[in-house]
């Protein structure tokens, strides 16, 4: 089944940047684009005709106009518009089910370049079954050029990052871009060493060679599947978030796996995704483990 790229729209500058990014990606991949605007009835006594039917019409006209402008900007792109009634989280999560990816806008915050991930964005990322891409206001096509890489984080066993690697390689293939696969490592506490782990490290020649071997093993299937994509394998000591952000300046897109967790105050994304989303200047894709 061919899935469209779906983008959320609410009329803000951030959502317009997300629509632009989604449209360009749809053109590159030869996919359709679906623009979604979720709305809820708001009783506005001071506004004549502010009834549910009138507000539904306003929402439909707004999203249809956005879709028409995208179609004019990208001749040949199949663009559809949808204005479901309901809360934004439920509507966007539902829209993501049949999408190749869901693209949303996200606000920069204060003097720190990056994203301000609100409760809606976080809830959507946690619940979505498909990759979610967050795009900042002001994102420009000029960043999507040769020399700017698709940066993706890899950790754990090969299967732990398979979905994120797939997304990164597919995106790089569509753009003719290089993939930089980043694996960060830290010194384990002394008590974590065991005879079996020490043997593995001895066989690999030490900690860093072991990490390089682990990364090469995770990347090899994707090298074979995408032979035309150039790959840089990047192993560096440090926390995963810090290492990823250290190479963010050369990225046109950063891809991280989702590590959602449940807490007493609700679901939360993992610390690596959280850090990258808040501080990377480029768009960020958060990929759930089952996406494929």
TrEMBL record:
Domain UspA: residue ranges: 1-136, 150-288
Any Pfam family the entry gives: Usp
Family membership noted in the UniProt record: Belongs to the universal stress protein A family.
PANTHER family noted in UniProt: ADENINE NUCLEOTIDE ALPHA HYDROLASES-LIKE SUPERFAMILY PROTEIN (PTHR46553)
Protein name: Stress-inducible protein
Naturally occurring in which organism (per UniProt): Streptomyces davaonensis (strain DSM 101723 / JCM 4913 / KCC S-0913 / 768)
Lineage: Bacteria, Bacillati, Actinomycetota, Actinomycetes, Kitasatosporales
């Amino acid at each position: 089944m061919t899935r469209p790229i779906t983008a959320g729209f609410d009329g803000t500058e951030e959502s317009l940047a997300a629509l632009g990014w989604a449209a360009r990606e749809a053109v590159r991949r030869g996919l359709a684009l679906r623009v979604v605007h979720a709305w809820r009835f708001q009783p506005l006594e001071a506004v004549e005709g502010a009834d549910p039917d009138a507000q539904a019409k306003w929402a439909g006209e707004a999203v249809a106009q956005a879709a028409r402008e995208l179609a004019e900007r990208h001749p040949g792109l199949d663009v559809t518009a949808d204005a479901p009634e309901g809360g934004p989280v439920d509507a966007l999560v539902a829209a993501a089910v049949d999408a190749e990816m869901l693209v949303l806008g996200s606000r920069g915050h204060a003097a720190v370049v990056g994203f301000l991930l609100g409760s809606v964005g976080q809830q959507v990322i946690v619940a979505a079954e498909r990759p979610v891409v967050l795009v900042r206001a002001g994102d420009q096509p000029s960043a999507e050029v040769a020399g700017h890489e698709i940066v993706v984080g890899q950790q754990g066993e090969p299967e732990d990052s398979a979905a994120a690697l797939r997304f990164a390689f597919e995106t790089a293939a569509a753009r003719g871009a290089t993939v930089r696969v980043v694996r960060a490592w830290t010194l384990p506490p002394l008590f974590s060493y065991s005879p079996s782990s020490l043997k593995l490290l001895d066989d690999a020649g030490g900690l860093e060679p072991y990490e390089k071997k682990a990364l090469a093993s995770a990347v090899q299937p994707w090298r074979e599947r995408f032979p035309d994509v150039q790959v840089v394998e990047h192993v560096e000591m440090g926390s995963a978030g810090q290492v990823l952000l250290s190479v963010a300046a050369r990225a046109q897109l950063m891809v991280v796996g989702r590590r959602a967790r449940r807490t007493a105050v609700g679901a939360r994304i993992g610390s690596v995704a959280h850090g990258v989303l808040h501080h990377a200047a480029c768009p960020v894709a958060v990929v759930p483990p089952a996406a494929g």
